[in-house]
């Protein structure tokens, strides 16, 4: 079977769900809009027939669908310095700085990590220039880039199966209530501002583990905590959203004027309190 053809049978406990919602729950790396587009293009069948997205699935329904191979979009190679951590014939690992966008999007076609990778490796024909995951613009950290199709497919499968372990260091406001914990709360788009992500009952399942590394305190009795964070899912802005929901937003998410003033007060005046 082609790697782009998928087949699934509806179980007893899943009867009555909308087809598009059922499939996004089963294939979490596919968005609902992507599933709907596949249905509209008649690339999906239920028992050999083309359904509507609102079709309510029945027990033992045989669902088959095909995901067409995306044509690589053309982007401009740019001479942007990269901090290379590791490289061999199959992969490239770079340290993305804070402030750099990973992929070009509306309103930002240049200066991204993708442009920099193309400038370094050449304008080769891999979707998204071989970049198989992403980090938020303001997040620094390692990005793995595939240099050939076989490696790209292998890495994509690891991320889809969530076998890749991702760890982050996050400095948050306040003192955590426990030394370690887990945030298990669904994440989706805010009803008030569709550009923002938030914890919502109608969002997608999301889990984030954390443990306290250090607690710092300024002379003004202001606590901040350094956390090691391990997201088990990969929702947009997951760490920021979950930590904010705990009442401990990431320090960099505060207004810059407030950050600057806090840093000036912090300099030379912190210690490790007992936790």
From TrEMBL:
Keywords: Isomerase, RNA-binding. It comes from the Bacteria. It catalyses: a uridine in RNA = a pseudouridine in RNA. SUPFAM superfamilies: Alpha-L RNA-binding motif, Pseudouridine synthase. InterPro entries: PsdUridine_synth_cat_dom_sf, PsdUridine_synth_RluA-like_CS, PsdUridine_synth_RluC/D, PsdUridine_synth_RsuA/RluA, RluA_PseudoU_synthase, S4_RNA-bd, S4_RNA-bd_sf. The keyword Aminoacyl-tRNA synthetase does not apply. GO terms for biological process: enzyme-directed rRNA pseudouridine synthesis. GO terms for molecular function: RNA binding; rRNA pseudouridine synthase activity. Its EC number is 5.4.99.-. SMART domains: S4 (SM00363). PROSITE patterns: PSI_RLU, S4. Pfam families: PseudoU_synth_2 (PF00849), S4 (PF01479). The active site is at 136. Responsible for synthesis of pseudouridine from uracil. Belongs to the pseudouridine synthase RluA family. This is Pseudouridine synthase. It comes from candidate division WWE3 bacterium CG_4_9_14_3_um_filter_43_9.
């Amino acid at each position: 079977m082609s790697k782009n053809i998928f087949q699934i049978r509806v179980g007893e406990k899943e009867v009555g769900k909308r087809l598009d919602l059922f499939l996004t729950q089963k294939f979490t790396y596919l968005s609902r809009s992507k599933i709907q587009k596949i249905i509209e293009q008649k690339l999906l069948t239920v028992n050999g027939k083309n359904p509507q997205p609102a079709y309510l699935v029945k027990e033992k329904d045989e669902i088959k669908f095909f995901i067409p191979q995306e044509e690589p979009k053309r982007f401009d190679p740019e001479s942007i310095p990269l901090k290379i951590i590791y490289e061999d014939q199959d992969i490239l690992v770079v340290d993305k700085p804070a402030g750099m966008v990973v992929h070009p999007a509306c309103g930002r076609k240049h200066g991204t990590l993708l442009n920099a990778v193309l400038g370094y490796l050449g304008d080769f024909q891999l979707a998204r220039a071989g970049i198989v995951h992403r980090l938020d613009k303001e997040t620094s950290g390692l990005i793995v880039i595939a240099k050939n199709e076989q490696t790209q497919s292998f890495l994509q499968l690891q991320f889809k199966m969530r076998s890749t372990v991702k760890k982050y260091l996050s400095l948050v406001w306040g003192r955590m209530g426990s030394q370690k914990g887990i945030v298990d709360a669904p994440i989706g788009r805010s009803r008030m501002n569709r550009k923002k992500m938030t914890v919502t009952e109608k969002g997608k399942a999301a889990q984030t583990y954390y443990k306290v590394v250090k607690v710092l305190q300024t002379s003004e009795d202001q606590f901040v905590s350094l956390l090691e964070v391990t997201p088990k899912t990969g929702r947009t802005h997951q760490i920021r959203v979950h930590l904010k929901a705990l009442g401990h937003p990431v320090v960099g998410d505060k207004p810059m004027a407030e950050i600057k003033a806090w840093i000036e007060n912090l300099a030379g005046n912190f210690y490790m309190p007992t936790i």
